[in-house]
Amino acid sequence: MKTYDDDNRKPNRLIHEKSPYLLQHAYNPVDWYPWGEEAFKKAKDEEKPIFLSIGYSTCHWCHVMEKESFEHQDLADLLNNNFVSIKVDREERPDIDAVYMEVCQAMNGNGGWPLTIIMTSEKVPFVAATYMPKESIPERIGLMELLPQINVIWTKEHHKIDEQTSMIRSHLSEQTAQKPMGEGTVDDNVLYLAFKHLEDTFDEENGGFGNAPKFPSPHNLMYLLRYWNRSGDERALEIVERTLSAMRSGGIYDHLGFGFHRYSTDSAWLVPHFEKMLYDQGMLAIAYSEVYQATGKTEYAGTVREIFEYIERDMSSPKGGFYCAEDADSEGVEGKFYVWDTSEIREILEETNAELFIDHFNMEKSGNFLDESTRRPTGKNILHIKASPDEIAHKHNINLEELENSIEKSRQKLFEVREKRVHPSKDDKILTDWNGLMVASLAIASRALGEKRYENLAKRCADFILTSTYMRTGSLSHLCSERTETPAFLEDHAFLIWGLIELYETTFEISYLNTALKLNGYLLDNYWDTGNGGFYQTANTSESLLFRKKEVYDGAIPSGNSVAFSNLIRLGRMTGNTELEKKAYEIMKTFSGTVSAIPIGHTQFLSGANFVLGPSSEVVIAGDLTSEDTKLMLSHLHREYLPNKVVMFKPSGTEGNAITRIAEYTENLIMKNGKATAYVCRDLSCKEPTTDPEKMIQLLKAKEY
Fold first, then answer.
1. CA 346 to chain centre
2. What is the pTM of this model?
């Protein structure tokens, strides 16, 4: 985080905020306000427009805009004299960001961050843009030119402002009309169309989809796995494996410290945008865990372990939660922390190890990292892998084990050296939704890999979230902080419920399932659209913005409605509560027109639809968690890729009463002959109970349904 200890600048109002992004601007000469009544009252009383700037702490162009604009007194004078300036952290207030991003996209056909809005004190925008330079450049007006123009129009030709805001209000009225989203049917054909689109856009040479830039989009890969599992089409699995392998080999992966960067700026996964986001790690760990279950290939499990090594080392709060992100920049240069020149490698490593390392990671003397403006080699290298380890070992006339030992020894040594560099800044917010996703990810990986450590990390995180806000106040908060009570959004509930469901299926501690059901009930009571179905992003009692957002598009991370949809069907099947299933069907109907029109934009939603359309299974295991036969039954269950199932555990004796209170149908499900017993129901048809783990798996994988 940038500070100004060595100069005499005075802080603005943002100095009292907790958001790292807002604190980065706390010493700007701009008289920033946080979003709140004080700023809007000032704008109204002084009859000034509002300059709203939205970004986040690891946003590269947000940093650029701060340095070239907001740190300069002449621009600050323009803003301070004629505008009321508000800064918003989009990760802290995704509701504000979602509303104004939609306006920006409607006005310009595109959006992004930093998001720049000029609006009235009634919060109605009349100018919307993304990054704006201080001085005008070709095709993009500068703030020093635009702001005086706005001031003239505001003071002397205000009718033009009124005309623009009237048009915006008309557009927004369509958002608040609450009309149905069109008709359609989410069926097998829609599932096929989503697969077909992904297949048609698959990059045969490099993996992934489309051209540059390339995003990981793990929910697309998770959907393809489900489609493969459903249809038996090996092409879907091939696309997943080739993409995950290419990303793991590419420069988008941090080969020294592990974890994935945000996206690749080129089609070959070589040059990343170097920031690291918590949600990318969580979603990708799920994708790699699932493909490990599907194929049994240990390299995928290895990637999961490395992701979590990075998370535990660099992104973990001492209290139990996980931080948001790490910046792309260090010392004002994007990627500086991560890149190397060959001379550094030769200085640090012994000659033989250095040559192996340079060859293995495709390093060049001139460098493969090009200058952003000149496109000339910088002498710096992004580590990436092209040849297989077998090819490298053969080339250097050594065996594979020798190569692997050398590379790992060199990696550790170079990592220690890199740790002494100036690190990128860290956004240490702990967000409920992203942490809920990490709980789900850790729990899924714990089962797939048989790693108790990940279960413990998931429990620690879930317990932290629940005790930091929920247990203390009776409701969730978007930020897990004792000093900040930011109301929770749909995504906070949906992702945490998902995490708690996965955590229950990992630990079978009934408290996690109970809490998931309570949170789900609160979500239905406070976020459900009673007129048209689906969930709003904000609660009935939340701050009133321009319109109330309801989103199903699965973007960088899945939408809250897509995750809530899956949660409802799973909780309904787990508990036997058909009312929850009916709500899931309502969501499916609500968004059917949108999803069937653009299946590729809703792959997380389609993963839920895949569950609803079946085949799907419910499994109840009656047994003793400490007994070897129960452990054997569960290990068989966990190692298989069975995405369309729910699992309940029924302890023997009075301990089973707690499960029966939640799921009455389990009352008479008991161990047979004193052995762990699996009760499998598949597509509303219950099978003969079995004490044989192999027989249980056969029942779950049977094709006739």
1. 38
2. 0.91
